[in-house]
Write a structure and sequence with these properties.
Blueprint: H1 15-19, H2 21-40, E1 66-67, H3 82-86, E2 92-98, E3 106-114, H4 123-127, E4 133-134, E5 151-152, H5 154-159, H6 166-171
Antiparallel strand pairs: 1-4, 2-3, 3-5
This protein binds iron/sulfur cluster (SF4) (2 copies).
């Protein structure tokens, strides 16, 4: 089978193109035309006007963590260390203590997550046998001016509520 070859005739650059300056001005004119039209009317821009317009968060989206509680308000976590063991970033630090009720033996007395080291992989949520840790807070803007504030304590993790109802979370396939 013969191969069809198409020969492109190269005419070389014209003297205007070889001068470059004219082409540079042409390019700048296009840039300024777009800049001015978008500056005067940005309604057609295909960008999100963050932070005025927040991104849409679904239950499958992994945001900042939280620790969940039973209906009576007691912590679900049983300090089994599964999340800490599975965390590839090793950013979870748990210390177990006696629970003191007849639910389970242990409860975490310390549960820290260093968000500066977290890679938001969701393995901790997957590994948890108790559905005690979730990333359904819808918090995507995690900022701070100090490293210390980026370390979430057990109280902060318990204080944060989920952004979805139980039905929405389960339907989201989490
Ligand atoms: S999301 Fe991943 S990196 Fe972050 S705490 Fe969970 S397991 Fe660790
Ligand atoms: S959050 Fe879940 S996996 Fe982690 S220690 Fe508590 S019960 Fe175990």
């Amino acid at each position: 089978m013969s191969i069809k070859v198409k020969t492109i005739v190269r005419n070389g650059r014209s003297w205007q193109e070889r001068l470059y300056l004219i082409e540079v001005f042409k390019g700048m004119a296009i840039t300024f035309r777009h800049f001015l039209s978008n500056f005067l009317d940005n309604s057609k821009l295909a960008v999100r006007h963050y932070p005025e317009v927040k991104p849409e968060i679904t239950p499958r989206w992994r945001g900042r963590h939280r620790l969940t509680t039973h209906e009576d308000g007691t912590i679900k976590c049983v300090a089994c260390y599964m999340c800490q063991t599975n965390c590839p970033a090793q950013c979870i630090q748990i210390e177990a203590g006696e629970r003191g009720d007849d639910r389970t033996e242990k409860v975490p007395v310390k549960f820290d997550i260093d968000l500066l080291e977290c890679i938001y992989c969701g393995y901790c949520v997957e590994a948890c046998p108790m559905d005690a840790i979730r990333m359904d807070t819808g918090i995507f803007s995690v900022t701070s001016s100090t490293r210390e504030e980026m370390k979430m304590s057990i109280d902060q993790l318990l204080a944060t509520k989920g952004a979805f109802s139980e039905e929405e979370y389960k339907k989201g396939g989490a």
